[in-house]
Amino acid sequence: MEKKVTIQDIARQAEVAKSTVSRYLNGGSVSPQTRRKIDEIVRKNQYIPNTFAQGLKQEKNRTIGVIVPRLDSMAQVEMLRGLDSANQNDTFLIANIYQDPIRELAAIKKFIAQKVAGLIILTANLTDEIRQTLLDADIPVVLQGQDEPDFARVMMDDQQAGKVVGQYIQTLAPKNVLILNVDSKLDWAVGYERFQGLKAALANIPHQEIITTFKRQTAKLDAAKAMSQQHYDLVIGATDAIAVGAMQAGFELNQQSYYLGFGQSVYSEIVSPELTSFEFNFFETGEQIYDLFQKIRNEANIRPLKIVIPGQLIRRASTKK
Amino acid sequence: MEKKVTIQDIARQAEVAKSTVSRYLNGGSVSPQTRRKIDEIVRKNQYIPNTFAQGLKQEKNRTIGVIVPRLDSMAQVEMLRGLDSANQNDTFLIANIYQDPIRELAAIKKFIAQKVAGLIILTANLTDEIRQTLLDADIPVVLQGQDEPDFARVMMDDQQAGKVVGQYIQTLAPKNVLILNVDSKLDWAVGYERFQGLKAALANIPHQEIITTFKRQTAKLDAAKAMSQQHYDLVIGATDAIAVGAMQAGFELNQQSYYLGFGQSVYSEIVSPELTSFEFNFFETGEQIYDLFQKIRNEANIRPLKIVIPGQLIRRASTKK
DNA sequence: TTGTAAGCGTTATCAC
DNA sequence: GTGATAACGCTTACAA
C-alpha cells in the first residue's frame, strides 16, 4: 500500500500547483489559507520529500561525510561527539573504514558521488590516491591527524607531547626504558612525531623500541616478550591501550616498573595503579574540527589552515614510587 | 575547475549517446571498441555517477540506515563491527542519536527520505511516534534491544542473564546486596528484563536497588553514597561500566565486596580484580542482525522474526575470595 | 500569491 | 549494438 507520496500528490489534493507546495516546504511566500490546507494534507499523508530529487536539483546538501579509521577508540568517538556538539545544521554520515586505505578510498568516492557538502577525515595516513581524489573533488575537506599542507587540518601537538614527556622522564631518572610504538607507516603522527620529541630525553638513557599494534592484547604479548628478557624500569606506550597492555604483562611477570601512556582513554583511571598519560581533549578537538570546516566551507579559496591542539601530562600513580 | 562531469559529457567525448554510456556503466551490451573508448574517457575524467540522479530513477539503494544510541559503548561498536563483517554489498549510514528520541525520529525520517534499503536500529526504547513512522515507511527494519512484536528483532537474552546470575549469586551466599540499575524507561531490556531473572534469587536475600546512569562516573558517585551508609558484600551493576564505578567507590571506601557486571566491555579484564560479568558476544550479534536483515529484505511479508542471543557468565577475580 | 514549464543526471523503453 | 526520448520528484525562473 502506501505507495510513495510525491509533491504532486500533495498538490493535487490541496488543489494547488506543485510549485506552491514546494514553496510551502521551503519557506517561500504562501497565503495563510493554502498554507493551512497544505499543512494538513502533508501531515495526513506523512509526506517526506525525496532527497534524491532535491539533491539532483540543488547540488547542495547539508551532509558532511566523516571518515573514521576505527570506532573502538575513545579518541575517535570523543571527536565525533565534539563534532555533533558543535554541529549547527548538518548531518554527519559516518564511515568506519577499519584502518583500511581501500575501504577509505571507496568511502570517500561514495561520499563525493553523494555530493556531500564536505569531508571530515579522521585519518592516520593518506595514500597518494586518496590525496589526489580529495584534491580533484574540490570540496571542503578537514583532516585530522595528518599534517598535509594541501588541506585544512587539525593536529594534536605530538611533538610537544613527546617533548613534555621527555622532560618528565628525566625527573624519573630511569635506568632502562622500553618504548612500545606503532608502525609510523600506519600512523605517522603517533609513530613518528610523538617520539621525535622524546629523542632528546632518551639520548643518554638506555632504551629499546619495539613495534606493536594499537590492540591492547597484542601490546600485552609483545611487551611480555620484551620484558621477560630484561627488566625495564620505565615502559612508555604510544597509546594508553598499549601502556595498559604492558602494565598487565609487567604484573604477570611480577615486575616493578613505571608506566606511561598517551591519549585520553577509558583506561587511565580504571587500571590500578592509575596510568600517567599525556592527554589531549578530543571532544574539544572535534568541536574545533567542525568550526574549521565551517570556516573553509564559507570562505572559498582560503589558504589551508592548520590548527594545533595542545595537550597536557596528567601524572597518576603509575609513575609514582 | 573540474565542474561536475556528467554522463552527457562522457557521451559527447566518446561520440556516442548517453544511453550507451549508461549501458556501459551498468553492464549492458556494448561493443568492445566503444567499451574501450568509453573506458578511457571515464577514467580520464574521473567520472563518478551522480547518486541523486541514480536514486531518483531507481528508487532503490544499497544503503542501510543504522541508528546507534551511543557510540561510547563497546557493545554498540562491536555490533557495528559485526554488521560490517557480515556485510555483503551494502553501505551503512550510521546515525548516532545520543539516546535522544527526538534525534532518533529525525534521523529515521531522514533515512526514509533518502530511500534507504532498510533500517537497523540498535535501540534502547521506541517511542510511539517512532514505531508508527517505522510501520508507515514499510521498509525492512531490524530492531536490536527492544522486543517489539511488530518488527524483526534480535534480542540479548536478558532474562536468562538474570537467571544465570541469580543462580550464581546463591553460591556466593551474600548477606546484603546492592543493585545498581538504570531507569527501565530508558532501557527496558537492561532495566527490567535483566533484573526480572534476578528476582527469584534475591527473594530471601536483603538487597537494595538504586537507579543510576550508564556513565561510570555517575555510577561511582551513586554507589559511593549508598555504600558509605551501609556495607554490601555483593554489588551488582546493570552494566560493566556501572559495576566498575561501584568497584572504584568501594576501594576508596576501603570496603571488601564482590562485584558483578553485565555486558562485554573493555573494563572487565582491565580492572583489578578483574570483573566477573555476564557477557554477550556483540560482534556475533551484529552479524546476526545483518543476516536477519537480509532475510526480511528478500522475503517480503514474512512474519516478524525474533532471534535471541544467549550469553554466558564469565567468572573472574571480583567474585572470588 | 500562484501556476507553468524547463531542467537536474540517470535509467529504461523502444525503435532502428 | 546503438540512439532518441520519456520518465523519476523536485526546484526555480518567469508569467499571470
From TrEMBL, chains A, B:
PROSITE patterns: HTH_LACI_2 (PS50932). Keywords: DNA-binding, Transcription, Transcription regulation. Residues 5-58 form the HTH lacI-type domain. It holds the Pfam family LacI. One of its GO terms (molecular function) is DNA-binding transcription factor activity. Gene3D superfamilies: 3.40.50.2300, lambda repressor-like DNA-binding domains (1.10.260.40). SUPFAM superfamilies: lambda repressor-like DNA-binding domains, Periplasmic binding protein-like I. Coiled coil: none annotated. The keyword Magnesium does not apply. The keyword Magnesium does not apply. CDD domains: HTH_LacI, PBP1_TreR-like. This is LacI family transcriptional regulator.
